[in-house]
Amino acid sequence: MPELPEVEVTRMGIEPHIKGRTVNKIIIRNGRLRWPIPDEIQQLVGQTVRTVERRAKYLLIKSDVGTAILHLGMSGKLCVVSKQTPLIKHDHVDIEFNNDMVLRYNDPRRFGALLWHEGITGQHSVLRNLGPEPFDDIFTGDYLYQLSRGKQLSIKQFVMDNKIVVGVGNIYANEALFKAGIHPKRAAGNIARKRYDALAPIIIDTLKKAIAQGGTTLKDFAQADGKPGYFAQELQVYGRKGLPCVLCEAPLSEIKLGQRSTVFCQNCQN
Prior knowledge:
alpha+beta, Helicase, Ruva Protein, domain 3, N-terminal domain of MutM-like DNA repair proteins, four-stranded antiparallel beta sheet, 5 helices, 2 domains, single chain
């Protein structure tokens, strides 16, 4: 599943091609995504794209009359192509612009979404209960420490909770906890403030490095230009079960937490 860095890389890839362009047509070949695509999405036709923003893992294509809210789901991809580009299987939506270019949405599993909202975007039901972005000033060690008090939830599940902070998906939670030396099963409420003071900037740095390197190529993800992301080459624990720890060379362990694969070092994380 594309995580925050992959979605941000996608945003950066498509924005230069569609910002300031007028939408000529929206073609929906299959509107049965995670939720049905609402008819109101056609209000975007005739409008100029003012900005392309990201909130958590949602892309926000903003116009003067409303916002198209797009989620890539498990396997969704966006690319900007000429409208003459031949279709391939699972090309579900085209947003056609006044320069004969098309923002094309492909999604084999159809777990993604294309929604419409008028008014303040943050009030849409999929956005209103989200926590802060990891790059917001509020996201600090003290913030995590205060919210964690009394919680027996594992630290990995805690930092992956979108009501606590958005965008710390499975890959990056594994990596950040390893770099911070924190065992993923530890109860969030039993971790000291100084360890949260170390963890918060590690999360931020891990995500920023992934964005800078174009995301992580795992299964379906590629950038908007079709090129792979390269952060996978930097992964120290995720996907490395049984391989030597980069610090102590002990074999890395794997467990399931919240149904998600969790790889860690028994020696280096406590």
